[in-house]
Amino acid sequence: MRRSLFIPFVRGTIALLGLLFSSACFSREAALEIRQGDHISIIGNTLAERLQYFGRFETLLHARFPGHQLVVRNLGYSADEIVFRSRSLNWGSADDHLSMAQSDVLLAFFGFNESFAGPEGLERFKTDLAEFIEHTRDRRYNGESTPRLALISPIAHEDLGNPNLPDGTANNQNLELYTRAMAEIAHDHEVPFVDLFEPSRDRMKNSSQPLTINGVHLSEAGYAEMAPLLDQALFGSHPNLEAVAAELRAEINEKNLFFFHRYRAVN
User: Fold this and answer.
1) d(CA 253, CA 247)
2) Hey, which bits of 145-252 come out as E strands?
3) Is 74 helix (H, G, I), strand (E, B) or coil?
């Protein structure tokens, strides 16, 4: 039987939620299958890395699957691209860490840093993304089966009205191109894909408060907006459980803090 890398901090709270919501009617129209005991690894850029600081998405994930005893590991790393992932000497490969996490499911956040290459880099990005999908499908990180993969697009660049920051016009043109490219490659390879670009652009335009800290990195308010979008795109609609999951989110954040200092230890 496979074991988690750490003491399961959230198990008791998740079991309680299982009793509370066992009769809830969740949508069966899921883009991504989640199974009992799955080890879910989050990989990719800053959008992925900062998920762990606020626990919004992971709270919805555990609340949706309260009896599954999921193991979630955030392996996101700021500025990661599909091909280029800068690390310390002897860090180990991406495959090494996904194997250590015994990954059954991968949520891959890419496309933001790559988009700075503009239209000229689009074909290279599509090739790299297709090769990443094929490479992932050729691995058995859990020692038994190939991982289930979902691709997550970048968010839009928010115009904060700050003269010291870009307004995002140029970035959004490129981000839209790269989001469309991700959708195309995902469709061709039959991989679930979540477009966060369009929904985030709409939310940013209509929000009463900024959703990013600098135009491109979500604040806590931004993740509170994004988490339900990601959750529903992957798994379908369900009742809003966030209001009753504060205790669960606190334990998830503590677990993520412990894991971060193990995964990112500098010595």
Assistant:
1) 10
2) 148-152, 193-194
3) strand
